[in-house]
Each structure stands twice: as structure tokens, then as C-alpha cells.
């Protein structure tokens, strides 16, 4: 079954430079996204508990702006997950936009997954 794109926006109260480090580095991702993250070139290896390691490749990025990863299982597809930092021109409010792909009927579960992850990130950053 084909996955479809979903997008979520989270308000963040922190500096964009610090947030980017939590999105783009193995050390930063290991603080909130997974139990352990190892980076080898453009490949990131994620571990949660006793589950087998999962590989994602950094396929695009723009420093201080966004990162896009593709899970190994999604290679050969247009599926990815992306985290983009957006700063409002007028208010200077900072938001994190998450783009992901999920299967039909899994939207609520996917949203809850990202809400929990971003809550962990906000706690780490003191950005809640």
C-alpha cells in the first residue's frame, strides 16, 4: 500500500542554530529521537531499546534550515521524513515543520508519534 504525505507544525521557543544541531547530528538526534544514533557519512543508524538497528540516509539538507532523511525500507520510493525550521518574518516566532509519510488509516498514530518525539525535544531544549 502506498504511503501519503502528512505534515505537522510545532511551535518552538529556542534559537534556530541550537535546534538545527538537534536535528542534523547523531549526538543531537540521540538526545530525543532514538536511544542511540551513529553517523557514518550520510548514513545514520538508529537504535531503540532492544530493537534491530534501523538505517536512514541524509538525502538533503540546508544548514540551519532543514534535514531530510530516507529510511532504508523506503529506498526507491519518494518517501522521506523532513524537519524544517521556519521563522516568521514579522513575529520572529520559530516553528518546526515535520513532513513524513504514513499509510492510510495511520494518520492519528503517526501524529501522536511525532507529538511525543517533539515533546521530548522541547524538554531537552527547554523550549516547551
UniProtKB/TrEMBL annotation:
UniProt-listed Pfam families: START_2
Boundaries of each START-like domain copy?
A: 3-127
Q: What top-level branch of life does the organism fall under?
A: Bacteria
User: Mind telling me what this protein is named?
Assistant: START-like domain-containing protein
Q: Give the organism, scientific name.
A: Frigoriflavimonas asaccharolytica
Amino acid at each position: 500500500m502506498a504511503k501519503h504525505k502528512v505534515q505537522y507544525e510545532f511551535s518552538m521557543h529556542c534559537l534556530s542554530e541550537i535546534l538545527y544541531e538537534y536535528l542534523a547530528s547523531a549526538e543531537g538526534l540521540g538526545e530525543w529521537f532514538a536511544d542511540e544514533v551513529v553517523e557514518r557519512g550520510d548514513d545514520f543508524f538508529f537504535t531503540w531499546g532492544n530493537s534491530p538497528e534501523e538505517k536512514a540516509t541524509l538525502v538533503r539538507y540546508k544548514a540551519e534550515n532543514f534535514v531530510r532523511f530516507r529510511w532504508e525500507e523506503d529506498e526507491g520510493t519518494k518517501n522521506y521524513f523532513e524537519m524544517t525550521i521556519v521563522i516568521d518574518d514579522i513575529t520572529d516566532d520559530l516553528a518546526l515543520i515535520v513532513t513524513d509519510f504514513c499509510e492510510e488509516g495511520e494518520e492519528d498514530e503517526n501524529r501522536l508519534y511525532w507529538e511525543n518525539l517533539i515533546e521530548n525535544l522541547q524538554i531537552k531544549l527547554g523550549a516547551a
